[in-house]
Amino acid sequence: MVFFHAFNFSLVPKIYVLDASLKTGILWQDNDHEEIIKILNLLLYGHRKNNKKITQKCLSDLIDYAAHHFLAEEQIMFSTNYSARELTNHLREHHIFWAKVQELELKGSSDKLILDFYLWLKNHINTYDHKLANYLLVSARLFNKTQQEKNIA
Question: What is the mean pLDDT of the chain?
Answer without folding.
Answer: 85
